[in-house]
Amino acid sequence: MPAGSYEKQVISPSGSRVTLKIIRSPLSPSASGEVLVAQDVSAEREAAEMRALFISQVTHELRAPLQHILGFIGLLNDVDDLSPESRARFFSHIQDEVEHLSRLVDDLGTLSRLETKRFVIQTEPVQIDALVADTMSKIAPRARLANLSLSLTCPAEPLWVLADPTRLRQVLINLIENAFKFVPAGGRIQVSVEDRGEDVLVSVADTGPGIPPEALPHLFECFYQIKTREGQPVSGMGLGLYISREIITALGGEIWAESEPGVGSTFRFRLPRLRKWLPPESGTAA
Q: CA–CA distance from 62 to each of 58, 76, 98, 236 (Å)?
């Protein structure tokens, strides 16, 4: 037989499925037989499958908001007697979808920088309770459209941390939008900022279905997605929580999740509190 190669899947003694690349090399003369070399290519094939799945997910995630935008633009162009209220509502939907696309592109850009070791954090004093409140004010319209209750609890005194405000906002949006995916209409998302002495604790709690215990250890892995009860992955690219963990870790903090199936989930992160700093136009310590 001529020289060549083929792949074959076998079951290892441990019970796992292994992909082997079999390389055939005839002996000379050919009547003497041939040498077969088996190479384990399971990791390469798994990586290729993950890349293909990722590309498919990215295509889907980008296509959906684009289709919505085109649909609203079509309505605005084709319907002459739209009321001012309807036009304003459609433009608001278009803005929401454009912002959603922008966040997807931001996540892809962040992933690229993480993979190529070009991820940079630029820290400065940040009043974290004010940043959380401002971020939520931008997300609130989407919560109303989804018939979700979105609320915030903050201490009376301002809390300061040393952080990258752009990256910190990215984490907050990822956590809140993650709750949007799971909380049914009429549900609640409660965000809180707490003074824990040396640290500031931020929590995003929801009244969704909860997370299966076996999924909790994997939530912050790149590309990991929780499956629905029907066994299908939830929409998304599996990047938000992974990127959030990398950002919080780079800021010297910690992020984790707690959940009770059937009750809801809470995602929390803590950052070291910044005490010895005087904010602008203030004569008191933060």
A: 6, 22, 10, 10
Helical packing angle, 240-250 and 84-115, nearest 10°: 60
How far is the C-alpha of 38 from the C-alpha of 58, rounded, in Å? Answer: 35
**Nearest-5° Cα angle at 152, 149 to 153:** 135
Q: Which residues contact 162 (CB under 8 A, 6 or more apart)?
A: 123, 124, 125, 126, 251, 271, 272, 274
Phi, psi of 209 (to 5 degrees): -75, -10
Residues 30 and 50 sit within 8 Å (Cβ to Cβ): no
The CA angle 127-132-135, to the nearest 5 degrees, is 125
Contact between residue 194 and residue 200 where contact means Cβ atoms under 8 Å apart? yes
Q: Verify that 36 and 86 share a domain, yes or no.
A: no
Q: Which two tokens stand for residue 29?
A: 């003369």
pLDDT digits (tens, 9 = 90+) for 170-221: 999 999 988 988 899 999 999 999 999 999 999 999 999 999 888 899 999 9
For 57-83, the pLDDT digits (tens) are 677 777 877 888 888 888 888 888 888
Task: State the DSSP code for 283.
Answer: -
182: part of which helix (H) or strand (E)? helix 165-182
Q: Assess whether 130 and 260 both reside in one domain.
A: yes
Tell me how far apart the alpha carbons of residues 132 and 147 are, in angstroms, rounded to a whole number: 21
- Provide the domain limits for residue 56: 46-108
Q: pTM, whole model, 2 decimals? A: 0.71
